[in-house]
Please model this.
Amino acid sequence: MSDTSQKKTIFKLFHYIRRYLPFVILSLLLAAASVALMLYLPILTGNAVDHILEKGQVDFTAVSAILRRMAAVIILTAAAQWIMSLCNNHITYHVVRDIRKHAFEKLEILPLKYIDSHSHGEIVSRIISDVDQFADGLLMGFTQLFSGIITILGTLLFMLSINIRITFVVVVITPVSLFVAAFIARRTYAMFHLQSRTRGEQTALIDEVIGNQKVVKAYQQEQNCISKFDEINERLASCSLKAIFYSSITNPATRFVNSLVYAGVGISGAFSAISGGISVGQLSCFLSYANQYTKPFNEISGVITELQNALACAARIFDFIEEEPQMPDEENAVVLDHAKGRVDLENISFSYVPETPLIQNFSLHVEQGQRIAIVGPTGCGKTTLINLLLRFYDIDSGTISVDRHDIRHITRKSLRSQYGMVLQETWLRNGTVRENLTMGKPDASEEEILAAAKASHADSFIRRLPNGYDTVIGEDGGSLSQGQKQLLCIARVMLCLPPMLILDEATSSIDTRTEIKIQEAFAKMMEGRTSFIVAHRLSTIKNADMILVMKNGSIIEQGNHETLLKQGGFYAELYQSQF
Model:
């Protein structure tokens, strides 16, 4: 990534840090105080050395006073560093909390086309792994960077106050250390960025394989998955090795330069002490300063390496946070409440990919309380039509209206609250059965919950669970069968009973006997409610008021069951093929 991109990432990071400016200022002040106290310690040590004249001639009174002062300085330094660490931890983990919060909030407002077109594991990697890596680098930066810089500046000032010539030796050699660190850091960043991206790719594969383990085993794809994982793992090992190599040579390289600084101070200081330019105590003080002066360069070089990794991870998470969100609701958007259920589609067109048209010039008019069945071959646009009705995707042209209101002028929340939806793909959250049933109606009474469960024929198997309605089920239903999960989803819709219903293969995983009973319950539930039923089994839609036969994104036939059979067209062929 270019230097410009790094600067942009740092600028975005400061946007989060400035909220904790008081803690940053306090941390800087404590860093300055602790460094000043640490730099005062060599002066006290030098003074103590100067009070030791020779063997048998020691000014114990003066040395004792200096030792007491040194003890006070050490205690104050420890206290300052402890409080500074608390401040740095507070800043780091609150910044990380804010970034992760914004990332998750962005996830909730991203258009579904982004979620559908990006690996779920890669998204998880950005929000979890990358933010953790960023936190480690940021904490090290706050802990060591401030102290290191202040130590370098403070040491130079103290050395200048003792001897300008020896200080000049230190300053002349210093740029070599800075050049070495900067040279290595530029190469380190690129490697860490590649490492972060490859790690996301690996997380995506692991997530995919875990989520589809039954399919992997059923089709004997274990070896293929292992091979693919090994290939990504090898690439991750390669770029990680390069990143670690570049980062690890920073410290030895700067240590070598710093040893030159120490040797230069020792030689020039010794000659100065011999000529009477400085005392032995001042020389020991200078050597201590030379050591303290060079130590931060080693730490800062390590910090820079970690910051390169942190910035690479931060760039990925900021890219995610800055993704284009779904178009917000209009300021004066209509809040749809108690919809009657009239739905009109006028000449709508839609495609997932601009180059591949799907639905073109599609029109449909549904009166209140009508049951509309949608049938057709796979890929003809049935589920896409459902996505458009709920505004999961926005149409490219035309209008979709509910109760004569264009859905683009209705708030998404109120529009979706008017639909009850049971899909072929079930979704249950990690929680109790009761919490899953009341998702659409949190304030439902116990009697309403039981009535909905009995109507959906889910009550009997729920009562057989270890804790009945209070049984905790895992993510996506845990160990429940597909049919049981679908019954819970049906019960969830029956509990909230919205004015419009969408049933997309709602009984696909249920046995025939139970399906007949649920169809009877659906029939009662759909009375007076506008219903859209997507079905492959045509026996389930005989009683629909209108059947839409779709092919290649267009309605090729429409009418009731008897009318379409008499026409002897595509619907009749589909029906005859099943019976």
